[in-house]
Amino acid sequence: MRFLEDHADSHGVATRLKRQCANFVCNNHAMENLKDSKPRGHRQGVGIVLSSKAGEVLVARRNDMENQWQFPQGGIDGGETPVEAMYREMQEELGIGKSHVSILAVTNKPMRYNFVESIVDADGLTRKYLGQELLFFLVEFLGCDGMIDVKGVEEPEFDCWSWVDYWKPVELIVDFKRAAYQQALSELEPFMNRKGTVIA
Question: Which CATH number does the domain housing residue 43 bear?
Answer without folding.
Answer: 3.90.79.10
